[in-house]
Amino acid sequence: MSDSATARAPAGNAGPAQGAAAWRTGAAQAGLILVLLALWEIAARTVLNPFWSSRPSLIAERIWRLALSGELWVHCSITLQEAGAGLLLGAAAGVPLGIALARAPRTAKVVEPVVMGLYGLPRVALAPLFILWFGIGLMSKIMMAFTMVVFIFMLNVMEGIRTIDPDHLDLMRSMRAGRFYLARKVLLPAVTPWILASFRIGVGLALIGAVVGELIGANRGLGWYVEKSGGQLDTTGVFTGLVVLMILAMLANQLIGFVERRTIRWR
User: Fold this and answer.
1) Domain residue limits, the chain
2) For residue range 124-148, what is the model confidence (pLDDT) as tens digits?
3) Less Cβ crowding at N or C end of the chain, within 10 Å?
4) E strand or H helix that includes residue 237
5) In 3D, which of 240, 247, 235, 233 has the Cα closest to residue 59?
6) Residue 240's pLDDT is what?
């Protein structure tokens, strides 16, 4: 009885210990950000010309003013809609394509040069075409974000399926496991970490695609705000847009990490 209680003790204390470690990590991350901001503020007041580098205090003041006027929420919502829709569309197309190509090795070899050629194509150069084809509305930015992430999902899912041990599959088939059972018990657990990793990578790329589209042609969004501020030689406005984009990317990454911890408990 005592031996079993002793064996269970570490497991019972794992939750508080992990919580304390998470708090320490969060405090260290916040401290690092504060130190970097303080160094930036000091350098801008003593060494650098604020016209070229702005200052964190000015950027915080601008963010506050934009939030009070409601302009910040308008630009953030537009950019998040574009990036989010492109990211989800890329996942919806990339995951099935990756599974299909991984299950058909011969077809994958045939289309590999075309896929890698398209993947290596600088999608930023496609932005003017998307503006021409889809206009300056949401769709051109969504397609821009889509092209930035779809190959990430496809290639990662293909690699995840290739890591499955063939002997494991043969063993399951010898026990008369059906396709749906294999997909639920073997395929899905194998590709889930790769899909979540694709989401982590894709968040930043989708934001880049949306912002590039806004830089080329838009009338709203964080990319449009950065472009407008740059045209007015408003360095604080440019850094404000970039800082807000960084915050959105960090929050999205934390959200995906939370989902990953809840989804993949065995990792």
Assistant:
1) 1-48, 54-263
2) 778 888 888 888 788 888 999 999 9
3) N
4) helix 235-263
5) 240
6) 92
Cα gap 149→152, rounded to integer Å: 5
Distance CA 234, CA 74 (A): 20
Percent composition of the chain: helix, strand, coil (DSSP 3-state, to 5)? 90, 0, 10
Q: Which amino acid makes up residue 253?
A: N
In whole angstroms, what separates CA 125 from the centre of its chain? 21
The DSSP symbol for 1 reads: -
Tell me, which fold does domain 54-263 have in CATH? MetI-like fold (1.10.3720)
Amino acid at 257: G
CA angle in degrees (0–180, nearest 5) for 252-257-258: 100
pLDDT, one tens digit per residue, over 103-117 is: 788 888 888 888 888
Global model pTM greater than 0.90: no
| Token pair for 224 | 């449009």
Check residue 3 and give its pLDDT: 45
